[in-house]
Specification:
This protein has 300 residues and is of the alpha+beta class. 16% of the residues lie in helices and 56% in strands.
Amino acid sequence: MSDLIYIVDAASMPEVAFRPNQINDATNCGCLTSMNCTLNLKRTEIMKRLKQPGQSHFLLVILFFCVSCLPDLAAQKQEVDAVYMNSGEIYRGILQHHPDENLIMLQTLCWNTMIFNTGDVDHIERETVNLGSNRVHVPSSGYFNRTDMGVLIGTGNNEKNAIFSAQMVNGYKINSRFYQGLGIGIEFYEQAVVPLFADMSYHFGRNVLSPFVRGSIGYSIPVEDPPETWGVSTNNNGGCMYAAGLGTFIRLNGHNSLSISLVYRFQSLKSVITQDWNDEVLNLNKQYNRIAFRIGFVFE
């Protein structure tokens, strides 16, 4: 006899998630039939709750994205004098009066005072600048590496409310905005798994704070199976994963950045439990719905 049991691990459904030890206890005493009855009674309730949106998680992600965009929204425009030198250099600030007509005095935006000979100046223009813009020169394309770690946060009956996660993505970026690559990681559910995934992100600017959206999809491979106990063996098969969320780069310079992100994460882990004395088999599909907070370092 083969059954399919969904163990749902999410903040909105703690009462319908089965503990792994509850499954083991049922198989040890041969209570698979009674467990199947319990599952059938709660299946309708599970499907109803799965359709309920995680409103608090959604609002948290939107708030995080808005905070990342505040420096750009708060940028102030101001008219300044731009002094173009014969050498090609440009100095911006406010012109000041100088008693010598052969000299030009400029108070820069950094409150420094500079004096130029009129013969060294090509021309002077009046320009409008964004004082709040902290644009960083970033290579338009090329290799990048992002290494980060964090926790997958959620509540459920599996006693794993904060799951540690570490990931590394290597890839190629296009036009300073599209970052695409392949990633690998390590995560600790009831069993340790290694996620292998494709990752893509889109960045909205090149300022010191550079917000982005990102997504990934792949498959998690189990590292090991639990030891056999009381004639019950478990074979872990891993399962699919995907993630989508928002974040921001905090650019240290043109090649190095800190990365902070808030991501919705789904993970399905399949396993097969076999009772050796009667060859009875139970197929388990544990589904995790988590919010991941991640922080890491980016080289590009």
